[in-house]
Amino acid sequence: MTDILIRAVPGAIVDEIDRQARALGISRTAFLRRRLDREFRPVGGVSTADLVRLAELIRDFGTPDITDEDPELVDGSLP
């Protein structure tokens, strides 16, 4: 692993990092590592199957008779 040095972090920010780390019962380093991991974790790509499913879900999205409230569809069933 690589070490990262961040200079001139304002004291109020360091205090808040420490407060949140304490609340979780972990060190400042562990807290920052978690936050960086969450922020920069590679996101999985969108598959063709994902796009096909989306297309199926929104195929009638712009159709007025579908987008207007239909009492028959209130229960969530599809025609």
UniProtKB/TrEMBL annotation:
<dbReference type="GO" id="GO:0006355">
    <property type="term" value="P:regulation of DNA-templated transcription"/>
</dbReference>
<protein>
    <submittedName>
        <fullName>Antitoxin</fullName>
    </submittedName>
</protein>
<dbReference type="InterPro" id="IPR013321">
    <property type="entry name" value="Arc_rbn_hlx_hlx"/>
</dbReference>
